[in-house]
Amino acid sequence: MLVNWIEVNSNVQPASQTPTGRSSCMYPGAPPEPPVEGTAAPAAEEAPIVITLEEFQKQPVVAATIISQPLNFGLKNAHSNIYAEATEQEFIFDFQEATIVLKARPVSYEWSYGDGTSLTTSVPGGPVEGDAFDTQTPTSHQYAETGDFQLTLTTLFAGDYSVDGGPFQPVAGEAAVVSEPHLMSIWRTQGNSVSENCIENPIGIGCEAPIR
Questions:
Q1: Whole-structure pTM over 0.85, yes or no?
Q2: Which secondary-structure segment (H or E) carries 55?
Q3: pLDDT at 19 > cutoff 80
Q4: How far is CA 154 from CA 42, 86, 142, in A?
C-alpha cells in the first residue's frame, strides 16, 4: 500500500497540514521476514532441455536404400516396382551436460522418378514374386519413354528423445534424409508370332540386338 506523508503544524489554530512530497510502501499486516544470514536463496528452476529439428538433423541418420525389381531395369508403359529399405535408428550423445537418447523412425517417402513426375507415400513398398514386370504396387511407376533415368528419394524421419533416462518426447518436425540416386534403364518391347526360335533362325524377328 502506498502512503503519502504530510507535515502537521499544531502551533497554529486550526492545525495546518502540508504535503511533504514523500511516499512509502506499507505492508498490510506483519512485514516480510528478512532472510536468515548464512542461508542460500532458493535456486531458480532450470529450463528444460529441448532437442530441436536442427539438432536432430545433425545426427548421422542412415538414408534409405532404393531397390528396383528387376535391378535397374524396366519396360516402357509397364509398372516398374521400386521400393525403399529404411530402418529405425537410435543415437546416444551428450547435449547441454545431459545424456540424450534419440530414436529416428521413417514415416514418409518422397519419390522423384527422374522423368518429371513425383509421388509421396507413407509406405516404403516391397518386393513382389516373380520378375515383377508390369506389377502395380503402392510405390511402382510407369515410365512413358525409354531411356536412362536417375531416380531419387527423400525419406522423412520422425524423432523421439529422452533426457537423462526420462520419458521420451517428440521432436518438433521431421528430418529429411536424401538417398543416393538410383539408375532406371527403361526399354520397349514388341510382340511377334514366330515359328522358329533364335537358335534355329538367328536372323529371325526378335533375334536382333535390343533397341530402345
A1: no
A2: helix 53-57
A3: no
A4: 49, 11, 20
